[in-house]
């Protein structure tokens, strides 16, 4: 098991043949080339998902703990952007790692939210200067009117 190496989706996509077959499960990159013939579900299903994220397909079957251990055995790295936390407790193995990477848009939204100003600031920033300017102009107007 190698959890240090980071691969991008396009790097994984290059390994999609029977001779070189990688798949992604919960952000883990698995080289299943040597496992193809051994897979109880047949090699076809793995080859179909080669070079892609097969998390949904993997979970839909309801694989056992043994299958999850195979994943750790054949893991060669992690998908870029995934935060994987290994745990000794096998049941948590995948719940912990099942975290979506934070998307840029979410970060942006967070930053914008943080920049929101309280409503009363708007009052002081715009309304008070506007009132002052109005008073000033009115004063000038009155002065002018009185001098006439
Ligand atoms: C595209 C993803 C996958 C699909 C669609 C898939 C499909 C299946 C199916 C249909 C079975 C049931 C076979 C039967 O009951 O006769 C099975 C069993 C099994 N698969 Fe997969 N599989 C996938 C990925 C994997 C991976 C990545 C591993 C491990 C590296 C794995 C390990 C196993 C094991 C150990 C079994 C035996 C039953 C169990 O322990 O859950 N599979 N798979």
TrEMBL record:
PROSITE patterns linked: CYTOCHROME_B5_1, CYTOCHROME_B5_2
Taxon lineage: Eukaryota, Viridiplantae, Streptophyta, Embryophyta, Tracheophyta
A GO term, aspect molecular function: metal ion binding
Keywords, sorted A to Z: Endoplasmic reticulum, Heme, Iron, Membrane, Metal-binding, Microsome, Transmembrane, Transmembrane helix, Transport
Annotated transmembrane regions: 121-141
Subcellular location: Endoplasmic reticulum membrane; Microsome membrane
Main location: endoplasmic reticulum
Xref: InterPro entries: Cyt_B5-like_heme/steroid-bd, Cyt_B5-like_heme/steroid_sf, Cyt_B5_heme-BS, Cytochrome_b5
Protein name: Cytochrome b5 heme-binding domain-containing protein
Pfam families, A to Z: Cyt-b5
Family affiliation: Belongs to the cytochrome b5 family.
Membrane topology qualifier: Single-pass membrane protein
Domain Cytochrome b5 heme-binding: 4-80
One GO CC term, this protein: membrane
